[in-house]
Write a structure and sequence with these properties.
By secondary structure, this protein is mainly α. The protein folds into 3 domains: about 5-105 and about 115-120; about 160-290, Tetratricopeptide repeat domain (Serine Threonine Protein Phosphatase 5, Tetratricopeptide repeat, Alpha Horseshoe), CATH 1.25.40; about 305-415, no CATH class. Helices cover about 60% and strands about 0% of the residues. It has helices spanning about 5-15, 20-30, 40-50, 55-65, 65-70, 75-85, 90-100, 115, 120, 135-140, 150-160, 165-175, 195-205, 210-220, 230-240, 245-260, 265-280, 285-290, 310-315, 320-330, 335-340, 340-345, 370-385, 395-405, 410-415, and strands at about 350-355, 365-370. The chain has a two-stranded antiparallel ribbon with strand order 1-2. It is elongated and about 85 Å long. It starts with a helix and ends with a helix.
């Protein structure tokens, strides 16, 4: 869960402070002490900082945000990729060229599409010495069942040299003798060349192909690779996961869960990735989520108390009413509902329910935020706790006494 310093940054960013927006963007871009890495959220906050004239924000966008993340937010992000490309950031040039190809800006009369691009972006366009027809010829030949393999390899290499990302991926996989899932494939032509494979896969990955980063992660963990590196494999795997690769998201989630003893909040990261994989139809992800954060019971002690939350209680005891609603919404125990630090518990995709400091018999657990309706209700409750001084709630005994006093001992006993 977010620590105290991160909570200060979040509040500042929400209030419009440019420095806080930049800092929050960095936290989500690279992963904070407790906040999980989230590229779309990083892009959102960095764009907000960039609109206030923070040059570092658009430079970070250009250097780190891949095409797959930038394209859905094209209207918001395009200006900052242009700025970053003008600053000479190579990655920004590549992404800008891709964004222009997908939805090119209208050119002035008599002006070519290439001339409409900034000078830095023009340098990212395919090599003019490579025949423009190479990608189309390669694709046509690859579709043939009885294709000439030597001609296929030649055209694939030409298309890759010309900047075609699909050809670069295919060439990298061929050189590594593997398929897109990382499984070994026998080939009668040539030998394995992991170093060359990585060079082509990296180019495809920089152009937004998640499969390329996933394949690179498989190469870096191969025992026969002389430059085998678990850290490089994990970095490539997370790049693929950020781009939406379901298998990478599943693997990132399982890895984070297994590493939870090294860092307690790894379970939060595990849930984040597993929810992403589950949303894409992974059959294994929901099973893993059920082990980490089991589905809540069908009823709650707070359910019969909801009708008793009159306008008087809502106005005079807003935090108490909010805690009852929270208990009913996420099936919290009475102690959890009364003692939970709501602001720090909210991790966006889940709640970290941890009251061990005040209630020794409890255990730390995660509760998933499963629907948009739950997210909206939780946002409203969190805003309430941000606006009201929680010191007035007192300790557990005082909170419990207030609960019984306002709602009646008989009703509490029944609950």
């Amino acid at each position: 869960m977010a620590n105290r310093d991160e909570l200060v940054i979040i509040r500042g960013a929400r209030s419009g402070d440019a420095a806080a927006q930049l800092a929050l963007g960095k936290l989500y871009l690279f992963g904070g002490a407790s906040l999980p890495q989230n590229m779309p959220t990083a892009l959102h906050w960095l764009c907000r900082a960039a609109t206030q004239g923070v040059a570092e924000a658009w430079q970070l966008i250009g250097a780190n945000i891949p095409f797959e993340v930038a394209q859905p937010a094209r209207a918001q992000a395009l200006e900052w990729f242009v700025r970053a490309a003008q600053d000479g950031i190579p990655a920004a040039v590549r992404v800008l060229a891709q964004l222009r190809r997908v939805d090119p800006a209208p050119a002035a009369a008599g002006q070519s599409r290439q001339a409409a691009l900034p000078a830095a972006a023009q340098r990212a366009l395919p090599n003019p010495e490579v025949p423009a027809s190479a990608p189309e010829a390669w694709r046509a030949l690859e579709a043939e069942q009885d294709a000439d393999q030597q001609e296929l390899l030649r055209l694939r290499a030409l298309a890759a040299q010309g900047g075609d990302r699909d050809a670069q991926l295919a060439l990298g996989l061929h050189l590594a003798r593997m398929n897109s899932e990382g499984d070994r494939v026998e080939s009668s032509s040539g030998t394995v060349n992991f170093k060359r494979a990585l060079r082509w896969l990296a180019q495809a990955g920089e152009q937004g192909l998640a499969d390329a980063w996933f394949a690179m992660s498989r190469i870096y963990i191969r025992p026969e690779f002389s430059q085998r590196s678990a850290s490089e494999a994990q970095a490539c795997l997370e790049r693929a996961a950020d781009m939406g690769h379901s298998g990478a998201q599943l693997e990132c989630g399982i890895h984070a869960w297994r590493a939870r003893r090294g860092a307690e909040d790894n379970d939060v990261r595990a849930v984040f990735w597993l929810q992403k994989a589950a949303a894409q139809g992974s059959a294994e992800a929901p099973q893993a989520l059920e082990r980490i954060a089991p589905a809540p019971p069908p009823t709650s002690w707070a359910d019969p108390l909801l009708p008793l939350l009159t306008r008087e209680i809502l106005s005079s005891q807003p935090l108490l009413a909010a805690r009852i609603e929270l208990a009913a919404l996420f099936r919290l125990t009475r102690a959890e509902a009364l003692l939970l630090d709501v602001k720090s518990a909210d991790q966006g995709h889940c709640l970290v329910v941890d009251i061990r400091a005040s209630y020794g018999r409890s255990k730390r657990r995660l509760v998933l935020v499963r629907t948009a309706a739950e997210r909206q209700k939780l946002d409203r409750i969190v805003r309430l706790f941000e606006q009201v001084d929680t010191d007035m709630e007192g300790n557990y005994r005082q909170r419990l006494y207030r609960l019984k006093s306002w709602l009646g001992a008989d009703m509490m006993a029944a609950a």
